Amino acid sequence: MNDPLHAGMREASRLTRAGRLIDATALLQRTLHGDRNRTHYSSNAGVPPTIDLVPDAVEVTGVERGRPERAVRGRLPDVLRRFLDRVIPTGFEPGSGGLAEPTAADTPESENGQFLTKSFSNQAGSRTYKLYVPSQYRGQPLPLIVMLHGCTQSPDDFAAGTRMNLRAEQHNCFVVYPEQAASANISKCWNWFRPGDQIRGQGEPALIAGMTRQVMSDYSVDEERVYAAGLSAGAAAAAVLAAAYPDLYAAIGVHSGLACGVATDVPSAFAAMRRSGSMAKRRSGANGSGRREYSRIVPAIVFHGDQDTTVHPNNGDQVIAQLKEALANDTSITIEDGRVPGGRTYTRTVHRDAADHSIFEQWLVHGATHAWSGGSPAGSYTDPQGPDATREMLRFFLDHPFSS
Q: Quick check: is 251 in a domain?
């Protein structure tokens, strides 16, 4: 049959198998409502799946934050729910950009240390998280890294794709993976574009900071070496943490993300993500006062693919430019080009202060799209051909404690 409903179902099925759940859901909703004129997806089957940083494709009204996931799911149209029930449970192969959870065999990081499931609650809400405790932990103070996943990802998926637990085992670090709830964002994106989730003491920044402090209370953590990093929406959330809690996080890692406060709603989020050259107007996000103030210089390492069509590469420039506002003097810059053996080329830019200490690093990976550079195909949204972002971030972090 070639009627619009069945044609829409066939296309949605193809998108779902490709791992493009957001696009598939959007198409189904438009099909069910007779709106076939607006499309947010490419018909080119060769285009790899990407992470959507804002949930424009699915709008669920009347759902409160903190509600169980089944409450969100129950608001979806019946036909859409039945369709997703039929095609989603099969999952996707690891590395396809899909939703399948990695198995124990896909997660060599957990071979020695403990990967624990925990939860945290405060006035801003509650979230679950995973905590990696290295096998050599005996009560001595260790560094702590907070890893914020991208949309549709989970802590297990993100750990498998980045292999951060493996590096943490080698360097004796704790790793915390906060998990976004579908009740807070149906695509499991961190809400980096909402004013209430961009400031200290409120929303998701308060949750993540509270979670960080809970681990610091439960375990022996080196308070001079607490860091935050993320991918995509998680990277944007890490930039928010640098602005909201510069007294807690010694340095940050931003992979394919955006600067804090460049968006205050969904339309401005898409404008920031898709702009092609000019810098988006900087906003405070919390109170509209303009310039965002930092109480200290927060060192940062930034990765971005120069072929990223989900978040324009200029956003990486803006992350650095925003953090440099805290500097009293200009930095000196060194630029070097390199190539991963058998893989991608890259340009690495290092910003140094007057004492010749590195403050910011920016890696532009040539030919890379919206994926974790140097990641493992055991997880989603990874680019194994790129330089190892996990290794470089951990090196940068350990070189930048608060005392530096």
A: yes
Please write the tens of the pLDDT for every residue from 44-80: 333 334 456 665 433 333 333 333 333 333 333 444 4
CA distances from 81 to 181, 185, 188, 243, 309 (A): 19, 17, 17, 39, 29
Triad 363, 367, 371: Cα angle to 5°: 70
CATH number at residue 239: 3.40.50.1820
pTM score, whole prediction: 0.74
Q: Which domain holds residue 65?
A: 4-87
By the 10 Å C-beta count (0-12 exposed, 13-18 middle, 19+ buried), 313 is classed as: middle
Look at residue 32 and tell me if it is in a domain.
yes
Element of type H or E holding 299? none
> Are 185 and 231 part of one and the same domain?
yes
Count of CB atoms situated within 10 Å of the CB of 330: 10
pLDDT in tens, 168-189: 999 999 999 999 999 999 999 9
* DSSP E strand boundaries for 136-217: 142-148, 174-178
Is the pLDDT higher at 328 or at 314? 314
Confidence label for 207 from pLDDT (cuts 50, 70 and 90): very high
The total number of structural domains in the chain stands at 2
Element (H, E) at 35: none
Among 237, 153, 155, which Cα is nearest to 198's? 237
323 and 390 inside one domain: yes
